[in-house]
Amino acid sequence: MPTWQREDRLTGLHSRPYFEELLRRDWQLAQRDSHAIGLVLFDIDDLTSYNEKFEKTGGDAVIRRVARVISSSYRRGGDLVGHWEGGTFVVVIQGDAAERASEYARVVAQRARDLLIHHPRGGGGAERYLTLSAGVASLVPPRELPLDALVNACRTALTRSKKQGKNCIATAEAADFR
């Protein structure tokens, strides 16, 4: 019996350890059945500066609001949403949805932006409000590819989106799956 909780106490989403267990299961099924699987990492832009201004309670409130937006956006039976760490959330999507993961990540990021949560450390325009960046990785996994390749590709895509600026979505490239 695992000692970790299934539910993240802050967000009510799947906890990271439980999410990783479900991800392993879904990865093995995708490999066995040769169907697409996608992983999306959403990260709240400039959460650290938000926490500096509004302290941890303000940051936690923002994390909870963003968690609700993300979880209400992924409602299909095979969708899994979890709290990865801090202001980062993770989503697993299956089949046809995995192929459209990037465009849907843009929709979800816009929904978070539409909350109009004022971010005092931002500049003018869109930067005045809290935004999300995302990294997306999807593929039909070959049997010999380890799950870490998907997670690393998604992390690399998230890093790329952060380098592009706030409120960006980046998709993993073939070379990212290592």
Helix percentage range: 40-55%
Low-confidence stretches: none
Biggest sheet statistics: 5 strands, mixed
Mean pLDDT across all residues, rounded? Answer: 92
The class by helix and strand makeup works out as alpha+beta
According to CATH, the homologous superfamily is Reverse transcriptase/Diguanylate cyclase domain
The radius of gyration is 16 Å
Under CATH, the topology can be stated as: Alpha-Beta Plaits
The first-to-last residue Cα distance is 32 Å
- Count of DSSP E strands? 5
Which term fits the overall shape?
Answer: globular
Number of domains: 1
The neighbouring-strand order within the major sheet is 2-3-1-4-5
Q: Give me the CATH architecture, please.
A: 2-Layer Sandwich
Question: Which properties best describe this structure?
Answer:
single chain; 178 residues; alpha+beta; Alpha-Beta Plaits; 5-stranded mixed sheet
Write the layout of secondary structure elements.
Blueprint (H helix, E strand, L loop, with lengths): L15 H18 L3 E8 L2 H27 L6 E6 L2 E7 L1 H4 L1 H13 L18 E8 L7 H18 L4 E3 L7
Parallel strand pairs: 4-5
Antiparallel strand pairs: 1-3, 1-4, 2-3
